[in-house]
Amino acid sequence: xxxxxxxxxxxxxxxxxxxxxxxxxxxxxxxxxxxxxxxxxxxxxxxxxxxxxxxxxxxxxxxxxxxxxxxxxxxxxxxxxxxxxxxxxxxxxxxxxx
Length: 98
What we know:
Helices cover 29% and strands 22% of the residues. The protein contains three helices and four strands; from the N terminus they run E-H-E-H-E-H-E. A four-stranded parallel sheet has the order 3-2-1-4, sandwiched between helices.
């Protein structure tokens, strides 16, 4: 069954640049990264770790503060697959975990 991994991130570039590569090639059909108004957009991190399954979604209306509940609702709605794995942007998936 197809699976989506979804996460949201606001100004946690270092965390995402370490964790995102560990999510690739783990069987997720899509990886959605919701940029919740980062002062520096996440484009560079996404392009460095692109394997065709990573989708960057950005808020059009900028937010001053991160909202866990609102970001979770939005990223879950963006997922296209019936199974959804939600992770914080700093979670590293080790090979032995999968």
